[in-house]
Amino acid sequence: MKGIKRSVEKGYLYSTVDFTSILNRKINDIFVEWDFEIDESPIILITEGEIKN
Fold first, then answer.
1. Distances from the Cα of 36 to the Cαs of 2, 18, 25, 45, 48, in angstroms?
2. Within-domain flag for 53
3. Tens digit of pLDDT for each residue in 12-45?
4. Phi/psi at 15 (nearest 5 deg)?
5. Do residues 53 and 34 make contact, with C-beta atoms less than 8 angstroms apart?
6. Which residues, including other chains, have CB under 8 Å from residue 29's CB and lie 6 or more apart?
7. Contact yes or no for 27/20 (Cβ under 8 A)
8. Alpha carbon 44 to chain centroid distance?
């Protein structure tokens, strides 16, 4: 069940937030891990390339 939830969250982030435009970098992967005890979800973005000004 947890794996399915991760996949759904990851798909949602890819489809609703344009991280590439915001960060000026290509996004290679997104990792989401929900902590049910503190009700928070850290999101880690794996990017490629240099930051463009």
1. 11, 27, 31, 21, 30
2. no
3. 777 778 888 888 888 898 888 877 788 888 888 8
4. -90, -15
5. no
6. 45, 46
7. yes
8. 6
Long-range CB pairs of 41-49 (<8 Å, 24+ gap) are: 41/9, 43/13, 45/19, 47/23, 49/25
At 40, the amino acid letter reads E
Let me know how long the chain is: 53
Global pTM exceeds 0.85: no
Strand, coil or helix: 12: helix
What is the domain range of residue 16?
Answer: 2-48
Q: How many domains does the chain have?
A: 1
| CA distance linking residue 33 with residue 46, whole number of Å | 14
